[in-house]
Amino acid sequence: xxxxxxxxxxxxxxxxxITFGPAALGLLLAVVLPRTARWALGLxxxxxxxxxxxxxxxxxxxxxxxxxxxxxxxVGLFATAALHERLVTVTVGLGEARFxxxxxxxxxxxxxxxxxxxxxxxxxxxxxxxxxHPRARRARLAETFRAFGYPWRDADPYADLYxxxxxxxxxxxxxxxxxxxxxxxxxxxxxxxxxxxxxxxLEKLGYAVRDEGEKQFWRPLVRS
Length: 224
What we know:
Blueprint: E1 5-8, H1 12-41, H2 50-57, H3 62-86, E2 90-93, E3 96-99, E4 102-105, E5 111-115, E6 118-122, E7 128-132, H4 138-147, E8 163-164, H5 174-188, H6 192-204, E9 207-212, E10 215-220
Antiparallel strand pairs: 1-2, 2-3, 3-4, 5-6, 6-7, 8-10, 9-10
């Protein structure tokens, strides 16, 4: 960190939790699962996935417990690597903010706000120029962006402009409605990349979209 930039990554407690937590959880599960499975098998009730529970309960010898522990610890390490890849460091500067590998000039950012565990940055036409999952917690992001004079908001400043999408709505032009129809299919298929590409296509037509599960909400872009 310098006087002109602030790098927002994991806090020390979060770094320890994310680095060692999944592996430690895997080790704990290796010890607890066999005993829990044997206890569950003794209950006078039908169990879903009973064959799987029976296999877990049969693990008893030291070498079997060791193999299970090693597998679960490795799974935990993969989870840690996935988290490190998914979550990005945010660097706030006087002239630019960087979200992982994406830099946006300060002059082009007209709004920043949290959306669940994601961070959204809006450009001068209220488009989502950045959507990322930051490593820093929300309070630290808000404090730092405000300190550097960025337009931080606690919620979407255009939330009141959104309308639930329904196919064939008369308030939407056919081209935008067709994009939202294709995007609805992508959301149902969990095709995240396609959904992102269709969002960009919709923005070129002058509309923004917000998701709540598989339900889409749209609004016209607002130029500032």
